[in-house]
Design a protein that fits this description.
With 136 residues, this protein is mainly α. It has four helices and two strands; from the N terminus they run ββαααα.
């Protein structure tokens, strides 16, 4: 069973317990919703890259969590933040090309920023953490 210590008494026993994963999943969900319903769909290669970056954010969090070590999760959180930054660039381009409205992109950008801040804080903690002794 995977575990990540979140604080003095909080332990994430499953991926869904992590707020950072919840945010990442919401980012992916929102991007997939707008890519399915807009003119962006006609731009196959761009849409594929946008969707791939969106899926990569929660996937990297999940992969790091499944490795069972705090420093591994920290490394994969950095990968997820990279994918989130890539996603922001794609959203900006989609707005600039009038494939989506800024009103659709703005809430996703906000979620990306929340995810990035949350994952940066968790990364700092994980890089200094030692695995707890669960035998006691």
């Amino acid at each position: 069973m995977a575990w990540i210590v979140l604080g003095v008494l909080d332990v994430a026993r499953k991926l869904e317990d992590l707020v950072v994963w919840q945010l990442a999943s919401e980012v992916a969900k929102r991007v997939l919703e707008i890519s399915a319903a807009n003119a962006i769909r006609r731009e196959y290669k761009f849409c594929s890259q946008l969707e791939s970056a969106a899926r990569s954010v929660p996937a990297n969090v999940a992969e790091g969590f499944a490795r069972f070590k705090p420093r591994d999760l920290a490394r994969f959180l950095r990968y997820a933040r990279g994918s989130a930054a890539e996603l922001e660039v794609y959203l900006d381009e989609a707005v600039a090309r009038h494939w989506i409205d800024d009103s659709e992109a703005a809430p996703i950008r906000l979620l990306i920023r929340r995810f990035s801040a949350c994952s940066a804080r968790l990364t700092r903690y994980l890089e200094s953490a030692e695995p707890p002794n669960l035998d006691t």
